[in-house]
Design a protein that fits this description.
This protein is α/β, with parallel strands linked by helices and 283 residues long. It is 60% helix and 9% strand. It has a 5-stranded parallel β-sheet with strand order 2-1-3-4-5, with helices on both faces. The chain is globular and about 55 Å long.
Length: 283
């Protein structure tokens, strides 16, 4: 299906549901169909203001269309109106020189960052930050290509003086989860959301009462179903690069955003702890 066909299908879906919507919800639906390129960059508050309705009206409209909420609608809208990165990568050939390949890889990363930002659930981002802040202990999971992302989060939380540990081995993850309590948090990183070891061990932690924060690609997955708070990236990996920079760039930026928020919004001035930790690393 082409982008135009996909967009037409989405618009048709909205029009077919008009009779189920209230008058105020119809105003929102009409705006969405007439301004699809703008909607993917608008927050729920901005869309509500543009339509002259309340935030809950926007959310109800999305749910009546079959979406879980506004972020879900934005994701579908963005997929219909924004060019997919796969088209960029499929044009890479053995005839491309270094400059051409590099430009296409950079374009993919830029797209992933922009698309992820536009579809982020900022309520979930803040909830994840608050949950990490109040945790007694934080256990971080990440295997394979997700390992460096997990390690980066671990490094940043240690800088803030938090009790955090990272495990990239399945057996160590299982052992660590066996001692968690409802006061603890697991932060599981998996691009696919289907890594068996990570899913199984997150399940152990959940049974122990620990809170589960996940960082995965968008869409439902076994890991996201276990999560209390789910953070997602949007990217397109292809056969040319099984471990692409685009998804990792988006995930690392989410981690950095949470770290920065924690450092700058702390009652006990965590930013000072960061400076203190830096001093110990200097000669």
């Amino acid at each position: 299906m082409s982008r135009q066909e996909s967009q037409n299908a989405l618009v048709l879906k909205i029009h077919s549901a008009m009779s189920k919507l209230s008058k105020s919800e119809q105003v929102v639906a009409k705006y969405v169909t007439e301004h699809p390129e703008q909607v993917i960059y608008l927050s729920v508050a901005a869309l509500a203001e543009n339509c002259g309705v309340s935030d809950p009206t926007v959310v109800r409209m999305c749910q009546k269309l079959g979406y879980s909420g506004y972020q879900s609608l934005k994701l579908a809208m963005a997929a219909a109106v924004v060019p997919p990165t796969q088209a960029v990568h499929e044009t890479i050939t053995t005839e491309d020189d270094m400059r051409a390949v590099t430009e296409k890889v950079f374009q993919s990363a830029v797209y992933a960052l922009q698309f992820t930002k536009d579809t982020l659930d900022f309520t979930a981002m803040e909830a994840a930050s608050q949950t990490l802040r109040s945790a007694r202990k934080i256990v971080i999971f990440g295997m394979g290509a997700s390992g460096p992302i997990a390690a980066d989060l671990h490094h940043k939380l240690l800088r803030l003086g938090m009790d955090a540990t990272v495990y990239t081995d399945a057996h160590l993850q299982a052992i660590a989860c066996s001692y968690l309590t409802e006061q603890d948090v697991v932060f599981a990183v998996s691009h696919s959301g289907s890594s068996k070891a990570v899913v199984d061990n997150a399940g152990i932690a959940k049974k122990r009462g620990a809170k589960i924060i996940t960082l995965t690609s968008s869409g439902k997955s076994p890991l996201s179903k276990l999560s209390d708070i789910c953070l997602t990236t949007v990217s397109s990996e292809t056969k040319y690069r099984v471990v692409a920079i685009s998804s990792r760039a988006a995930a690392l930026t989410i981690v950095d955003s949470i770290y920065t928020y924690l450092a700058m919004h702390s009652e006990d001035a965590m930013s000072l702890k960061v400076e203190k930790s830096m001093e110990h690393l200097k000669y």
